[in-house]
Automatic annotation (TrEMBL):
It comes from Chelydra serpentina. PANTHER family: MPS ONE BINDER KINASE ACTIVATOR-LIKE MOB. The keyword Chloroplast does not apply. The keyword Metal-binding applies. Keywords: Metal-binding, Zinc. InterPro entries: MOB_kinase_act_fam, MOB_kinase_act_sf. This is MOB kinase activator 3C. Gene3D superfamilies: MOB kinase activator. Zn(2+) binds at C82, C87, H164, H169. SMART domains: Mob1_phocein. It comes from the Eukaryota. GO terms for molecular function: kinase activity. Pfam families: Mob1_phocein.
């Protein structure tokens, strides 16, 4: 019997509080539509396509928040295996190293242990998606002109969580019986960012071989 994501992962271990959509809003309705498509068994390449008549920025906003919640849950569960001792640098194998920069505390790219990088990342994303000037929730309030650029940066950094988890903690994923669920989340994420060209292809290189294998 297949388990749902919440049965595999402990919701109490979510790294950051889940961002929820307000019932009755257009964003909530879009979220329900996206979730219904996911559960219907439709091909993930089809699921990510913009529904007819919907606003592309609303569609992207819904998915950015949903991916934040899902990846948050995955890393929150894996975080006990990801320590300053096991992961002194935020990396994806020997070839890829990710440095943190946020234009506030870290104004220059800075080497950080993976757990600290993840903490900074989730706090940074949470701040952005709760900012009404960037992710407006009120009807009639337009998205900023740089909205998709902001989303590209968020999704690019979330992709690095997949890179780190797959390369450094995949044994833990398997031991928890979560491989199929993490793979499904990754495929959903990958098809979405490819559908709307939201991440530079060079950023995808660390997982290129795996992606070719599981994303047909």
């Amino acid at each position: 019997m297949a388990l749902c994501l919440s049965q595999v992962f402990n919701k109490d271990k979510t790294f950051r509080p889940r961002k929820k959509f307000e019932p009755g809003t257009q964003r909530f309705e879009l979220y329900k539509k996206a979730q219904a498509s996911l559960k219907s068994g439709l091909d993930l390449k089809t699921v990510v396509q913009l529904p007819p008549g919907e606003n592309i920025n609303d569609w992207i906003a819904v998915h950015v928040v949903d991916f934040f919640n899902r990846i948050n849950l995955i890393y929150g569960t894996m975080s006990e295996f990801c320590t300053q001792k096991s992961c002194p640098i935020m990396s994806g194998g020997l070839k890829y190293e990710y440095r943190w920069q946020d234009d506030h505390k870290y104004k220059r790219p800075t080497k950080l242990p993976a757990p600290q990088y993840m903490c900074m990342l989730m706090e940074w994303i949470e701040m952005l998606i709760n900012n009404e000037d960037i992710f407006p929730t009120r009807i009639g309030v337009p998205f900023p002109k740089n909205f998709q650029q902001v989303c590209t940066k968020i999704l690019t950094r979330l992709f690095r969580v997949f890179v780190h988890v797959y390369i450094h903690h995949f044994d833990s994923i398997i031991s928890m019986g979560a491989e199929a669920h993490v793979n499904t989340c990754y495929k959903h994420f990958y098809y979405f960012i490819r559908e709307f060209s939201l991440i530079d292809h060079r950023e995808l290189e660390p997982l290129k071989e795996m992606t070719e294998r599981i994303c047909h």
